[in-house]
Amino acid sequence: HKWSNEYLRKRAGQQAVMVEERADGHRAFGRGQEVEMAFGDFLSKMEAGNDRYYLTTQDLDEDEHGQPHITSPPVTQLLGDIPLRPRLLPSLIPQNINVWFGCTKAHSSSGLHHDFHDNLYILLRGSKRFRLFSPADAERLYLSGPLAMVHPNGRICYEGQLTHADGSDRAAVAAM
Question: What is the pTM of this model?
Fold first, then answer.
């Protein structure tokens, strides 16, 4: 209940965000162009029921050592509200914390896809239905390329893109 639009606007309304814009409410997201706007202006579009805009993952800035931050606006401004280690997952080491935010007048789908990292999904408003497939079924699904292997933890690797189970590759391990 804390994250009302008024509260979000007060904490992060002036922050610039990149928002996907689609030509009309009938086209799928993921194919549009990005436009920059203040987060508060985006909230106003959502309040008006505008279904042409969608806030998704923002680019991450890096620290003085070249390491990416784990948040970007508007999440950075809300960090005091978010436990970095929720009681549900006390050993969690967050890699990235994002917000996805949109408005739809009809059914919408993010399409069949897989993420390379584990996700904790918290729905604040509306409803969302998930259909999950086991990584053991990877060979029977439409993938993004030729399958090289599936790690025991479910991490999918494509030919020419091998990683360790945690997602690190040889270059990352060497740099570490």
Answer: 0.80
- Which residue(s) pair with 102 in the sheet? 54
Residue 10: phi, psi to the nearest 5?
Answer: -65, -40
Reported as a single tens digit per residue, the pLDDT across 96-144 is 899 888 888 777 777 777 777 778 888 888 888 888 899 899 999 888 8
Number of residues in the chain: 176
pLDDT, one tens digit per residue, over 29-55 is 666 689 999 999 999 999 999 988 999
The CA-atom distances, in angstroms, between 106 and each of 44, 78, 136 are 20, 29, 33
β-pairing, 101-102 vs 147-150, is unpaired
Rg (CA), the chain: 18
Give the type of residue at 176: M
Percentages of the chain per state (helix, strand, coil), in multiples of 5: 20, 15, 65
DSSP 68: B
Question: Which of 124, 78, 79, 133 minimizes the C-alpha distance to 100?
Answer: 124
Amino acid identity for residue 46 in this structure: M
**Residues sharing a CB contact under 8 Å with residue 92, sequence separation 6 or more, in sequence order:** 84, 85, 86, 120
Query: What pairs with residue 156 in β-bridges?
Result: 150
